[in-house]
Automatic annotation (TrEMBL):
One of its GO terms (cellular component) is cytosol. Residues 17-253 form the Pyridoxamine kinase/Phosphomethylpyrimidine kinase domain. SUPFAM superfamilies: Ribokinase-like (SSF53613). This is hydroxymethylpyrimidine kinase. InterPro entries: HMP/HMP-P_kinase_dom, PM/HMP-P_kinase-1, Ribokinase-like. GO terms for biological process: thiamine biosynthetic process; thiamine diphosphate biosynthetic process. GO terms for molecular function: hydroxymethylpyrimidine kinase activity; phosphomethylpyrimidine kinase activity. Its EC number is 2.7.1.49. Pathway: Cofactor biosynthesis; thiamine diphosphate biosynthesis. It is an enzyme of class 2 (transferase). It holds the Pfam family Phos_pyr_kin.
């Protein structure tokens, strides 16, 4: 019997999605697929399905701190992934928590909207996240609509948003897919090197949990010791495959298939 696991532990602070398409379940599955162990700390409960989100409730500060501190005290955490926080108070709580662990690579997915368009936090939450958590992150992974909110540029291009956001964070991955282009442009920006663009084929349909999948896969690759540009490429390739194989489990968006069918066999 193995007493100590060799799998890196990734602490995930995010919301619970009862449809299983996004949120902490997406984090868990994507990290398992990378060969990591997910330690999920719930920040919020949501009422949502594969169509949209209708309500959410952010948990009390004390509950979130207690969950995260229990993991941090017990396990050798290799990376941290942030998802839905939902309130300015929760942003402040997480910033306070993580400021004591500057050595941990932090992947920040600034979740402000569900895939169906419903709000998972006001724009003011995004501004607080930009000021408090982006500076602690090794990389942030907004899609273009989220990047526009964070940069306060409603019609900004990815390049224009990146110019603003790199004042707050060291590295940035702005994902595409929200226009009608035949190929999706995923753009990596850094204070330290020239921008890079990865192209992928646009797939038919829309997807629930693709951003969570990407950010968690990226956190997993970093936890495994992969260098950042390579980890970004690995996470993008993995995410595209989960979308290619996605399933329609409800009446709305497709859910990425993050684990192979024979995973538990």
């Amino acid at each position: 019997m193995t007493i100590y696991s060799s799998r890196p532990v990734v602490l995930c602070l995010s919301g619970h999605d009862p449809s299983g398409g996004a949120g902490l379940q997406a984090d868990i599955e994507a990290l398992l697929a990378q060969g990591c162990h997910a330690a999920p700390a719930v920040t919020a409960l949501t009422v949502q399905d594969t169509v949209n989100v209708s309500d959410f409730r952010v948990l009390d500060r004390e509950w979130v701190l207690a969950q995260a501190n229990a993991v941090l005290a017990d396990s050798q955490v290799a990376a941290v992934k942030l998802g839905m926080l939902g309130s300015i108070e929760m942003v402040d709580t997480v910033a306070e928590l993580l400021s004591a662990y500057p050595h941990l690579p932090l992947v920040c997915d600034p979740v402000l909207r569900a895939g169906g368009g419903g709000q998972l936090g006001k724009d003011e939450v995004g501004y607080a996240l930009r000021e408090r958590l982006l500076p602690l992150s090794v990389i942030a992974t907004p899609n273009l609509p989220e990047a526009r909110i964070l940069a306060e540029l409603p019609n900004g291009t990815a390049d224009e948003c990146a110019e603003v956001l790199l004042r707050f964070c060291r590295n940035l991955l702005i994902t595409g897919g929200h226009g009608d282009e035949a190929q999706i442009h995923n753009r990596f920006y850094s204070r330290f090197e020239a921008p890079q663009t990865w192209l992928c084929e646009r797939l038919p349909g829309s997807y629930h949990g693709s951003g969570c999948t990407l950010a968690s896969a990226l956190a997993g690759r970093l936890a495994l010791g992969e260098q950042l540009p390579s980890a970004v490429h690995s996470a993008l390739d993995y995410t595209w495959r989960t979308l290619r194989d996605a399933e329609r489990l409800g009446h709305g968006q497709f859910v990425p298939r993050r684990l192979p069918l024979d995973f538990c066999s």
